Protein 1
Amino acid sequence: MRRMSKPRRKLSLKKRLTFSVVLLGVLFGVPEGFFRIREVVRKNRKPRLPLEFDAYRGVILTPGASYERTDQGRRVDVNSQGFRGPEIGPKGATPRLLTVGGSTTFGLYTSTNANTWPLRLQAQLTEAGHPCEVINAGTPGWTLRSSLTNLELRGWALEPDVVVVYHNYNDLMSNGEAQYLRDAEVDDVEELYRPPPGGFLDHFAVFRFARSQLRDPYDKLREKQVELKPEGVAAFEKNLRRLARRAREQGARLALCTFPHAFRPTYEQSVADEVPEIEEWYLQKGPLEYSVLLEGLKQHDAVIRRVAKDEGALLIDLSPDFPTDVSYYMSPIHHSDAGEALVATRVREALIKAGWIPAAK
């Protein structure tokens, strides 16, 4: 005679919910933990610049962070205020200069903070009997609009006596972007707020990995822009004039630098002359046809000269006679330590000649 089996007791709703939560936690937690560890391992194996997302400027330097590539002889130290360089104290009696720009002001390939052209400029001026303080407000990837926003959020509070502007290339690379044109119309910084591209999900390593696999960073570059958009050049000019107006309102003098580079008249000649990283910076990262790129650099320099004249800014015209020798460059636009020193020398000479940095008494 078969024994009747007892009916199973059903789990309570509370226990079922608890089990489901635990199961989901395991199913999600294991891959999340794996990809978080993977990020740490990759970061330690190949350190990355200390950049983080910012809703107003796109990216900012991570305050207090350091970055070192011993294989390349490069080190970056970011102060607690988020600038590359030493800590910034209260404004003193010596003139304070603020240098704004993208990676060419930041010093992307420069060996140390002290060898960036802003800190070289400070050292050279001081040695020449014109003591001053120079703050490096350059950040990789920034356009002039980014630097303008940064000035509003934290730059003007530093009370600079002189603002030295070294922008061109990143704005040119944004020539065909609709967002770049829209941002040029904005005065109120609050209107530039943008949440992270992944929203809340961007906090999870699993999502960050999936997004990196789905995105082709060079997808937009497969067909290069064959014509310079005049509205993009006009946006650059509008931002320069906005900066001139804000500098006057803040009581700061404005110096505008034209933009030297190592691009040769043709891509083939650049390759033949062994311009450093020409393939990466043109073929991989450049959205413009080569002739359009060269024309754009010229047009942006022409805008800089025109705005300097119209707005009473000091023009530091680096482009015409800056050496194109590859020893001064680490890429077609980024300088070696020797190139950084030469930029500092040219800027120093112009500032002293203009009488903007008084001699020590």
Protein 2
Amino acid sequence: MLTGLVLLLNHLLAIKISSGTNALNVSIILGIMALPTVVSVSEDALQATGRELREGSYALGATRAETILKTVIPASLSGILAAVILGVMRAIGETMVVWMASGNAARIPSPWYNMLEPVRTLTATIAGDMGEADQVTGSARFHVLFAMALCLLAFSFIMNLASEMIVRRSRKKLGK
């Protein structure tokens, strides 16, 4: 046990951070930025379940915790899911914070999953390079930027379809 702790401590001390602007910082910042959206929409969904539903659960002998876990949350699951998807899509679409805090390095970190290296996201690449692309002649760079935008649009569309399927499944399960 102690040797494992010593090995872990040695690995942590061996980590070198090349810059303060990296993918880990951006992840933390975006998580904090998206949190108010998720909390606000989830709170609205939980309050929209109605007082009658809670009172019915209490009348059947459920405790407060059972009412929340077995009645209120399942009834508002579609709203909570919508809140999470809205928060994720807000984080994906964020450009300027990511641009500033990620290091804006147009290279793949080595190894690719290293969160402590500067990175560049698709949105930051599109925003940064669109002004420099040769729009008049329709250069390859210009078309690549639009292909990146198409990838973001396709991902957003797929996320919306997935959320719609989950909402339909939860409605069918609840019998609405």
Protein 3
Amino acid sequence: MLNRRNWLRQSVLATAGAALLAPAGLEALNDRQGKLYERLADPGSDEAYWEMVKSQFTFAPGLTYFNNGSLGACPDHVTQATNQFRKTLDGFPSKYMWGGWDDEKEAVREKVAKTFAVSPETIALIHNTTEGMNLIASSMELSEGDEVLLSSHEHTSARVPWKYWQERKGVVLKDVELPLLPESREEIVDLFRRAITPKTKVISIVHVTNTNGMRLPVREISDMAHEQGVLVAVDGAQSMGMFQINLDELGCDFFTSSSHKWLFSPKGMGIFYARAEAQKLLKPLIVCRGWEDTSIRRLENYNTRNLPELLGLGAALDFRALIGQERIENRVFELKHYFRELLSKDDRFVLKTPAADGLSAGIQTVEVRDKQVLEVKSSLTKDYGIDCRPMTSHDINGVRISLAIYCTKADVDRLVRALSS
């Protein structure tokens, strides 16, 4: 567990220091950080602790939010820090946009790298998963007849880039049909193994599906693919931050995610990982001055960008570090098990998400028998103020429930009562 002094010293605000914020703003935010440390850093294993975590987020009155899989919320501390960064930028725009925050940007990169146990030289700070998938798909030097394998549960933003950049060249996109409720991780690996041909060049897969929260065995697929000379790209939009990830140990070549979901950063920030050996394959989507840079930073050379959001990502990682990555993962699985146990007591519910922890985590999709999902979604919203995502594809007909750290067991109880009505 971090001690108070070390945590405050390592925070993005301390890294920035007085050169980043006006003294009054810096003092106010440092005071808030100190109070956050006192509240969040102590071990918490009961609901009172998680109620306190929830209190760090400000939702609209009457809203119970189970839609983190679509878009996460920022903790109040992150919102305040980002707004202070924005105020600082607008106080001296040219200074901070072009060079004044270079050290602070690198501090955020280092925080991302530390969180996911990799070198900062493998991390680019981009805008979202969609950009990352376009970056990968546009960079691949593929020829007519080459194949890219996709799973049948890929998000549109992970599928369309391959269609746009490669299919028109005659590259073949092949779907690997996934079972809705696989019995094991090896079952999924075997489906990809059997789909590979001598023409297969890339496997592009989602880590956790946005449809029913199925968790794909990225490490096993990567090991199998690399034995046959096939690259692996991963859409991690629904996994990064949901549970602990060591990006190097995943074994994939590329991994991209939006940080505004499970990392609770400001909107419009994303993370891109490329293992060192694969970086030479990548071409920037945007080029300007500095395009000759050979480091991974060449992929984020936008000239102007929303730097307060980037620094806000650092503040979000500070917030998460207070709670602890392991504790966050344990809480996600605790909520998953609690939710599934409640549903198991009523045969009106059909879970459309695999039960095993190796095959699912914080996204659970449930069908209410004899009811159309849009009807269920409408009732939850209008009658109970509960927001979640209706899923109609893949014969699911279920509501997708995202179980994030600002969800409490009392919230889950309320949700199940509403679904039962």
